[in-house]
Amino acid sequence: MDQAEKKRKLLLGGALLATLLAVVLVEDEENGIDPTQSVQPTRFPVKKARNLQETVEYLDVDQLGQRKFSAQAGNIFDSVTWAPAVQSRATSQQRTNPFAQAKAERPRAPPPAPTPPPLQFKYIGKVIEGSEIKVFLFESDQYHVVKSGDRIDDRYRIDTVDDEAITVTYLPLNVQQKLTINNKVAGNIR
Questions:
Q1: Can you give the pTM of this predicted structure?
Q2: Which residues contact 166 (CB under 8 A, 6 or more apart)?
């Protein structure tokens, strides 16, 4: 046993002895108290109690006004917002800036046309059977084997398949996109 371990054991042993000694002393003190001893109630002087009752004023409930409810209150279950009403930017500018009307009359540019999402397909390879070319595509966790004219999830249509690219149409917007083919990475089976 090394010195640190001896020191730790002596320290823990001393703490155990101190705890046992404290328990014995506390048990001796508790034995000196009689649990059946009754407690004497304290008496409140009668004169003070009468004086307190005389000084207490009671509230006359009949003097309080009655609430008046109107049948025209409306729907009590309507949603109510406590936020202040938001003013449109144009009206607040017109109040503060006399030149804001000239700015407000300018025509705004139309919003940009929607664009299709980027293609999420990864080209894996293709199989050529006679004159028909089938392409293997991977999208997130699904594999697709498609040829020209096939649809993928009613979102995309395969238009053309050639050696350099696959032309795909995004059906919701009817926009064509190209997926380039890298023959060095993917496999070709003939």
A1: 0.42
A2: 123, 135, 137, 158, 160, 178, 179, 181
